[in-house]
Structures are given as structure tokens and as C-alpha cells.
Amino acid sequence: MSILNADLHSHSVVSDGTLTPEVLAARAAANGVDLWALTDHDEIGGQHRALAAAKAQGMRYLTGTEISVTFAGVTVHIVGLGFDPDDAALVQGLAATRGGRGARAMEMAEQLAKVGIHDAYEGALRYVGNPELISRTHFARFLVEVGACRDTPEVFRKYLTEGKPGFVPHRWAQLGDAVRWITEAGGMAIIAHPARYAFTANEEWALFSEFKAHGGRGVEVVTGSHTNAEAIRYAETALEFGLAASRGSDFHSPEESHTDLGKLPLLPGQLTPVWELLADRVR
Ligand code: AMP
Ligand code: MN
Ligand code: MN
Ligand code: MN
Question: Of 64, 82, 75, 61, which Cα lies nearest the Cα of 12?
Fold first, then answer.
């Protein structure tokens, strides 16, 4: 079962990816993906399209999202898989989570104007596929367009991360709420790309402990943003905390993402793949 090519983390134009759900599905299928999930940030508006596109491509599908959470002052992403996409509390929770993005974006633009980058709000909006989901990624694309930086990673380093001129601190959902919305909608909550957070060992332990206590059941072990060493490290963490393991590219764009859909290592042995526990949620 774990030799299955599952890609359970990807983004479309419904959040900050550059491809439609249909084009993503075709790309995933062409890359040999057997089981796919579209996991747009704080948004499940693309789920019915993604399921239909997966079916048209002969792939199995799990519903997905990636919820922005603030934990110990740090932004943590929680992937949800296998939930009912019409669950009212989940739909409402996600709407509340993305609600502050517009005001945050305007504030980011004001700060960027002070360092000489003008009209960034309007510029970022031109890259937005979903007006409710303006993100730092859209600003990054605009800053590359105007020549402020060479590529999007450079924009994040110079402008959009803590302490830099275009960074606006934001309070996202609470960990317990995000886990509960996903779980009560019949899905599984998963800690996304754990190596990406700047936590101390104690804070990371607290994240995993509280996540479990709230009913979280999985962790991404193999992702586009983990090195092999990080995958091995979080395979151990999964075993230590009794969590199932997930695998996903976090693909956003052919131009920006270094890991393509389905093109990543298999899960290490001994781990329980999340899709085994979600077998009855696979469509
Ligand atoms: P936001 O939800 O608006 O804070 O934007 C977060 C998104 O920005 C992430 O989901 C990534 O797609 C992107 N991102 C964050 N950090 C980086 C980085 N260092 N380089 C490139 N993209 C990044
Ligand atoms: Mn993103
Ligand atoms: Mn993420
Ligand atoms: Mn992601």
C-alpha cells in the first residue's frame, strides 16, 4: 500500500498556485500519481472541481485543505484530508480564517510603499485567482515582475518574512479549532512540513503534544520542503507520537516549485500511511 504514489499536498489558483484544478489533475496523472489531494490554503472552494478532474484522469482522490494556524506566535500549517467538503462548521471556520487577508494585504502594500515599491496591492491582485485568498505568494510574484527581486524565494528573504519591510504579523486560526473543524467533518488533521517552523525543541514537543490532544492524527514526513535527513527525523517523530505519515509535494507552480507533483521519495517503512486510515474516505 505504501508504494502507492500518493500526492496529498498541492495548490491551485483557488489559493496561491498558478494552475487550475483541472490542469493540476492532468499533470499529477501524467506524473504517475495514483491518489491525489488538492490542499488550497484556508479554502475548499476547489474541491468539487478537483474531485471531478481526478476522476476524469483515473486517479483516486481525497478532499484537502491547508489551514493557517498561529501556535506559540508562529504560523503553522495544518493539512486536512478526507473531510466532507460541504460541512457547515468547516466551511465557516475556513471563511473566518481567511477573513483577515484583505486588510493584511493592504497593510503589506503600505509598508512596501515606504521602501519605494508602489501599488503592490493592485499588483498582487492581478495574480490572485480567488479574491478572498490574497497571499504573500501573490505579492512575491508582483515584486519579481517589477524587478525588485530575481525570484520568489529572494522576495521572501528580503521583504516578506519577519523583520522585513513587507511583513505584517497576523493571527490565524487556533490549533484546536483547525483540528476540530477537520475532524468533526470526518477528516484527518496532519501537521504540514514540520521542518519549516523555527521552533525550539520544547516548542515543537508542545506542538505535537497539543495537536495529538486535540485529536490530530498525522504528520507530513515526505514533502517537497523536507530534505532526506528531515524526512528521517520526522519519521521518528511520527513513531514517537503514534502519528500516521503523509506524503505531498506542496506543488504551487511549474515555474516556482522544485518538487513536481508525485515526484518525491516514498514514505519510509514502518510508518502507517495516512491513506490507510482514510481508506473509507477515498473517492
Ligand atoms: P501567506 O499564507 O499569505 O502567509 O503565504 C504563505 C505562502 O507563501 C506559503 O504557503 C508559500 O506558498 C509561500 N512561501 C512562504 N515562505 C516562502 C519562501 N521562503 N519562499 C517561497 N515561498 C514561500
Ligand atoms: Mn502556498
Ligand atoms: Mn504550507
Ligand atoms: Mn502548501
Answer: 64
39 Cα to the center of ligand 4, angstroms: 7
Please tell me the number of the ligand nearest to residue 38's CA: 4
Pair 76, 211: CB distance under 8 Å: no
What tens digit of pLDDT does each residue of 269-283 get? 899 999 999 999 999
115-144 burial, b at 16+ Cβ within 10 Å, e below that, comes to: eebeebbebbbebbbbebbbbbbbbbbbbb
101-115 pLDDT per residue, tens:
999 999 999 999 999
185 is written with which cell numbers? Answer: 467533518
Which residue, chain included where needed, has cell 493557517?
68
Cα-based distances in Å from 3 to 10, 75, 135: 19, 32, 34
Phi and psi at 257, nearest 5°, equal -90, 130
How confident is the model over 156-183, as a mean pLDDT?
98
Q: How far does residue 11's CA lie from ligand 2's centre (Å)? A: 7
Task: DSSP letter for 6, please.
Answer: E
* Shortest-distance atom of ligand 1 to CA 75: 4
Task: Tally helices (H) and strands (E) across the chain.
Answer: 11, 8
What is the strand order of the sheet 244-248 is part of?
Answer: 64-71, 74-81, 188-191, 218-223, 244-248
Which residue ranges have their beta carbon within 6 Å of ligand 1?
16, 41, 68, 135-137, 152-153, 156, 252
Probe residue for ligand 1, chosen from 121, 127, 136, 164 as the CB with the greatest number of ligand atoms within 8 Å: 136
Q: Where are the alpha helices (DSSP H) in the chain?
A: 21-30, 47-56, 88-98, 101-114, 120-125, 136-145, 152-155, 175-184, 201-213, 228-241, 274-277
